[in-house]
Specification:
By secondary structure, this protein is α/β, with parallel strands linked by helices. It is built from eleven helices and 28 strands. The strands form six sheets. A six-stranded antiparallel sheet has the order 18-19-20-27-22-25, with no helix packed on it. It has a five-stranded mixed β-barrel with strand order 5-8-6-7-11. The chain is globular and about 75 Å long.
């Protein structure tokens, strides 16, 4: 029996879990529940003898986070496709199908978002196994979650007459239902023949390509061209931006699933959440006897039914007398809101973007292929950063037009290049980088290297970088 190929979608940049999830570091890479990130949990869940190495679809800014987190989970990817720009799920899934079909038209694809919580991985794998015969027979199988409440934040699936949501095998689908109002959701819950739409699919490459041919044929040419003109880059496959931009930006539901006649639904009765807002995180966090769900350095006094999270080292969050509230604190931003208004976080993010607030999209810890850094102090003409470099990693050989730098090693060993001078620095040793000097730092050791960087100059932006040599093949600018 050939293994199923997981296709993990992780190019999204949702803001409904702001401030922990932001455009520069979205929720799929955060540790919200359990050990590791949601992306790592998804990769582990879809691994084992019944699964092939995953195909991952992401964007350029996240590519090294993907490889680092997969390595941390002990999983080798089959292919990592880089989208030049987000075009919603239909073009992404089509690109994965074309990529797999080039090797095997009958390859089975399990398409899944990488930011969902599924606590019982074994139960979910059993549901996938039960859905497999239908997919092998040419059906497009979508997974439906048995509802336990009248949820208005999800789309729903109406089953064919006579079908029930407790079936142990795929059943017929009558129609997709958009996110309902509260009254409609209550009626569907009571009816018993509706499921939540999980956005997870199982089908063969052949079947989904035939569905694209039938329902959105105009998408095939640009996506085929983007794949044909793709270039390999350090183990990634970069889709060509020109043809990719010609693909319609549309979801797989609207493009194919709502039009196809060969649909089946696999009911799943285990725990599941898309963690669509902080109220969902509260539901998925084991609560104390008072109904509070806490994480990090938190003290709750006379609080009930509330979510309190401190997401920064050394930041103490104290709640007093809170009832059904959300309070999430980070070093640079705090959100406090009634739990039943958690969906309105996206309105707050839009308002901050209009104000030009960096916190709207920029995460305080900036992840790079060599490690990460965070700003400790930013003021007029100077900035102080903490920089962590992974063992064996190296920053690019670079220079700056507008700033000089002073590096102080606080942990580990740094190999530092300044123009023609190369030296090793250990704890409490420092070096000065004059404005315009070519410089690089490397970690030749076996443990993470930590240093403090003090920048001074007229402009301190991350795009003031001229790269001369880079093992990660980035260009100039902040991310490259």
């Amino acid at each position: 029996m050939k293994p199923i190929v997981p296709v993990l979608l992780c190019g999204g940049s949702g803001t409904r879990l702001w401030p922990l999830s932001r455009k520069s570091f979205p929720k799929q890479f955060a540790a919200l529940t359990g050990d590791g990130s949601l992306f790592q949990a998804a990769a582990r869940r879809l691994s084992g003898p019944d699964f092939a190495a995953p195909v991952v679809i992401t964007n350029s800014d996240f590519r090294f986070i993907v490889t680092e987190q997969l390595a941390g989970a002990g999983i080798d990817p089959g292919a990592i496709l880089i989208e030049p720009e987000g075009r919603n799920t239909a073009p992404a899934i089509l690109a994965a199908a074309l990529h797999l079909a080039a090797g095997d038209d009958d390859a089975l694809m399990l398409v899944a978002p990488s930011d969902h919580v599924v606590p019982d991985a074994a139960a979910f794998r059993a549901a996938v196994a039960a859905a497999r015969p239908a997919a092998e027979a040419g059906r497009l199988v979508t997974f439906g979650i048995r509802p336990d409440r009248a949820e208005t934040g999800y789309g729903w699936l109406e089953l064919v007459p006579g079908a029930r949501g407790d079936s142990a095998e795929p059943i017929g689908l009558a129609r997709f239902v958009e996110k309902p109002d509260a009254e409609t959701a209550a009626q569907m819950l009571a009816a018993g023949n509706y499921l939540w739409n999980a956005g997870i699919f199982l089908f063969s490459a052949r079947a989904i390509l035939a569905a694209f041919e039938a329902h959105v044929p105009a998408m095939l040419a640009p996506v085929r061209a983007a794949l044909a003109e793709a270039r390999a880059d350090l183990g990634f496959l970069r889709l060509a931006s020109g043809p990719w931009s010609g693909a319609e930006a549309i979801s797989i539901d609207y493009a194919v699933m709502e039009r196809a006649a060969n649909l089946s639904v696999m009911p799943y009765g285990g725990g599941w959440s898309d963690l669509g807002d902080w109220a969902a995180v509260w539901r998925e966090t084991p609560p104390a006897a008072d109904g509070n769900a806490t994480a990090g350095n938190v003290t709750a006094i006379d609080c009930e039914g509330s979510l309190l999270r401190s997401e920064s080292e050394g930041l103490k969050l104290v709640g007093i007398g809170l009832r059904d509230m959300v309070a999430v604190a980070m070093a640079d931003a705090v959100i406090v809101a009634p739990k039943d208004r958690a969906q309105e976080v996206k309105i707050a993010v839009a308002a901050m973007k209009a104000e030009g607030a960096l916190q709207a999209e920029t995460f305080p810890r900036d992840h790079r292929p060599w490690g990460w850094f965070e700003t400790l102090i930013l003021a007029d003409r100077f900035q102080v950063k903490r920089i962590v470099v992974h063992p064996g990693a190296a920053l690019s050989l670079q220079s700056h037009h507008h700033r000089s730098e002073h590096w102080i090693v606080v942990s580990g060993t740094a190999r530092v290049t300044v123009d023609d001078t190369v030296q090793l620095l250990t704890e409490n040793q420092s070096v000065y980088i004059p404005l315009g000097a070519r410089h690089r730092m490397e970690n030749p050791g076996k443990v993470p290297m930590v240093l403090i960087e003090v920048q001074t100059g007229t402009y301190l932006g991350e795009d003031d970088i001229i790269r001369y040599d880079d093992i990660y093949a980035r260009g100039e600018g902040a991310k490259g």
